[in-house]
Design brief:
- Pfam families: ABC_tran, TOBE_3.
- GO terms for molecular function: ABC-type quaternary ammonium compound transporting activity; ABC-type sulfate transporter activity; ATP binding; ATP hydrolysis activity.
- It is an enzyme of class 7 (translocase).
- Its EC number is 7.6.2.9.
- InterPro entries: AAA+_ATPase, ABC_SmlMolc_Importer, ABC_transporter-like_ATP-bd, ABC_transporter-like_CS, Mo/tungstate-bd_C_term_dom, P-loop_NTPase, Sulph_transpt1, TOBE-like.
- It contains ten helices and 18 strands.
- The two termini are 15 Å apart.
- Helix 2 crosses helix 3 and helix 3 packs across helix 4.
- The chain is elongated.
- The protein is an alpha+beta fold.
- It folds into two domains: 226 residues, Rossmann fold (3-Layer(aba) Sandwich), CATH 3.40.50.300; 70 residues, Beta Barrel (OB fold (Dihydrolipoamide Acetyltransferase, E2P)).
- The chain has a six-stranded mixed beta sheet with strand order 6-7-8-3-9-10, with helices on both faces. Strands 13-17-14-15-16 form a five-stranded antiparallel beta sheet. A four-stranded antiparallel beta sheet has the order 2-1-4-5, with helices on one face.
Amino acid sequence: MSIEIVNVGKRFGDFVALDEVSVSIPSGRLTALLGPSGGGKSTLLRIVAGLERADTGKVEIEGVDATGLPPQKRNVGFVFQQYAAFKHLSVRRNVAFGLEIRKRPKDEIRRRVDELLALVHLEQFADRLPAQLSGGQRQRMALARALAVEPTVLLLDEPFGALDAKVRKELRDWLRRLHDEVHVTTVFVTHDQEEALEVADEIVVINDGRVEQIGSPDELYDRPANEFVMRFLGPVTQLGDQLVRPHDLQLSTEGGDQAGLPGRVTRVTRIGFEIRVEVTADDGQTVTVTLTRNEFLALGIQADSAVRIRLAPNSPTTTATSPAQRAAAPSLAATH
């Protein structure tokens, strides 16, 4: 394993940021630390980088105990949400900075920088200042600078959080392709579920300083360990006492299949290619069902139509709890 985090705890005064967290991050993989703001994911990343000291536990990087090592001794590249560029230096000099302070030969620096600028598609902007780049270009420059020193591990703290939605999507695709080319062990922090599901090989869900679940995107989405993971990784609605995905529900009309819970359509909302149908069941429960446009048109339903709701076979579910139960329940231990 490239990174072993063992029983790491961290407090800030009375606030428990991390509560005995243990995670194994495989070598060469792209791993996301996913969770809500304040859940502990950035603190964990900073402890791996050596920018914070853990109160308890240890961190191993490539089999070496790095717990007490300063950041410069860990061979870790770090990219923050804010680009932290040297404003007075050109793009080329920004990328070369880490190599220059390590006093690498000039020919080696020039060759390495040229390779990285081509890799991140910035070779034509090599002589520009950071202020002359777009936000996405500055973030690619920051990634090139972090990769210049050939780190064992690349750590990204919400690297695309300050960018608009279109640029974030483009950079997500680019990061996935970049990782497949360079194969450096990469850990990135995000609170964006779509980003984690789209980019990561493995996701670590962190909440209230604890690990809720570890697994591939498919494992977490299809087999959530608990209610928190299911709610956090996608839309949910409630059918009886079960939490289900709205797109895993099926509707039928009175002339069709009579299996399922009876109710009436109370609202229909179109959002792009999706149709969201709100159904009030005969027992008073409100259920949201997501259909494609073609599915909706085939049913021929509208507001006040009588329908039946049922769960598609093999769909993930978890038992719903009340708000009071959720507040009182401890987080579950990690599963893998």
